[in-house]
Amino acid sequence: MAGRASRRGSARVALTPRSQARECDDGQRAHRGACAAARRPARGGDRGGRRSLRGATRAAPARRRRDHVARQAATLDALARRGWTGHAVQADVFDWLRDDAAPRYDAIVANLFLHHFEPRRLAVLLELAAARSRVFVACEPRRSGVAMLGSRLLGLAGCNDVTRHDAVVSVRAGFRDREISALWPLGGWETEESPRGLFSHVFVARRR
Fold it and tell me: pTM to 2 decimals?
């Protein structure tokens, strides 16, 4: 979903996998100004989410479509109450970022999205995103022993086997230190990268 602002002439967009509609609270609190964006479903990774939805889709596809539309409508309504105008875009993220007709944005926010890509593809994605925005914010899984322990204990909270599996895979594919910064395009940018809380890793890039 690409959100374009109706105030102050600014525009922001967020990238979020289909199966992960939750916000990254730590990153959002740390960078609330840049994170006031709509969610945008985009292809890339998300294999676990598709597996978990496969049975429900076969059993009740109409219900799933209604739920998806309802969630989308609720997001757009929340934006409208804050004076923003949003619209939904479903596309391959690389095709979308390469589209010459796509607008430039003041900020792009990626929420639990980047860890789905291997480093070479991620470097391409970041280069394309840098060409489309003045600020880029990413909130990703933190790769650490504490995060791995937490992911392995999700069964105690009643999470199913798909969620438990995906949590471990996500932590293994997560980030630490300045791994995202090392893939960000050089020149003309200020970058910050650090852990947030026990389980999150936040990256911010701003044009100088």
Answer: 0.69
Report in angstroms the alpha-carbon separations of 145 from 148, 168, 169, 174.
Answer: 5, 11, 13, 12
- The CATH number of the structural domain formed by 2-207 is 3.40.50
Per-residue model confidence as pLDDT tens for the chain (208 residues): 333 333 333 455 666 554 333 333 433 333 333 333 333 333 333 443 343 334 434 445 555 555 566 778 888 898 899 888 888 888 999 999 999 888 889 999 999 999 999 999 999 999 999 999 999 999 999 999 999 999 999 999 999 999 999 999 999 999 999 999 999 999 899 999 999 999 999 999 999 9
Given a contact cutoff of 8 angstroms between Cβ atoms, the answer to whether 148 and 199 are in contact is: no
Could you tell me the residue ranges of all domains in the chain? 2-207
